[in-house]
Amino acid sequence: MSIQDLGAIGELLAAIATLATLIYLALQIKQNTTAVQSSVADSMINSAQATMSTITGSAANAHVFNVGATDYDSLTADQQVQYRYIIVSLLNTSDLMYWNFRRGTLDHELWSRQATWITAWLSHPVGLELWDGYKTFLTPAFSEYVNQHLRVKTQEISDAVKKYEQHNRGVTSDA
Q: Is the pTM of this model over 0.70?
C-alpha cells in the first residue's frame, strides 16, 4: 500500500468522522429545540394558570370576572379596575405567547387554544372597549393579529357571547 493509498483512506475516515459529528450535532440541536419548546410552553401555561388561579382563588374574584364580562356597569369602581387588570394580565400573557408562537417556540395547537380564549375575553362590549384602549401597549404584531382575528370572527364572537351569557345564567342549550 502506497502513501497515496494511505492518504486516501485517511481522507475517507476524516469524511466519515465529519459526517458522524454533523449527525450528532443535528440530533443535539433537535433535542435542544424540543427542550426549549417544552420549557416555553410550560412557562406560558404556568403564566396563564397563575392569572386563572387569581380569578378562581376566591368567590369574589370569580364574581368580578363573570359579572365584568356580562354586566360591567353593575360592578363597583374597584371591581371594574380589578376586572380590567385581569383582562390586561391575560392579554399580556397572550402577547408573549404569540411572540413565542411566531418564533416557533410555541406549538400551533397551544397558540390556537389561546386565540380561542382571546376571542372569548374580548367578545363583549367591555372586552372590545378594553382592547381598543390597551392594544397600543402590546406588540404591534399581536395587536394586528387580534384585530384581524376579531374582524374575521364577528359572528363567532356574537355566538360566543350568547353561550357565555347563557352559561353564566346557568342556562344550557338543552333547556
A: no
